[in-house]
Amino acid sequence: MGLGALVRGQVAAVVLAIASYAGGYAVVELVFHALYNLTHQGWMLAAPVIAPAVASSVMITPGQSFPHAPPQWEGAAVMAGYALVLSVAGTAQTLRRDVPAGTA
Description:
- The protein is mainly alpha-helical.
- It has one domain (3-97).
- It has helices at residues 3-6, 10-39, 52-60, 72-97.
């Protein structure tokens, strides 16, 4: 379920997942460092954990994956949140697309 249920094409879902994972890391790091340079708020340095690529890196790295990285449990919580949201959205969309019983 999840992303595969939200995107109709299997190949498109896989390409989207790989692109968001691979490209997302660099883009999120650049955006949050630029925001930090504008605002000088310390929490901006740990905020990239909201991206799946950064969250998984934080989750699996034994120490800190980058300076100001949050603890491992925060990476795991972000990944669990993505799994939950995508699964609920995918299930809802599948049920909405599905043909109701007795109408076929």
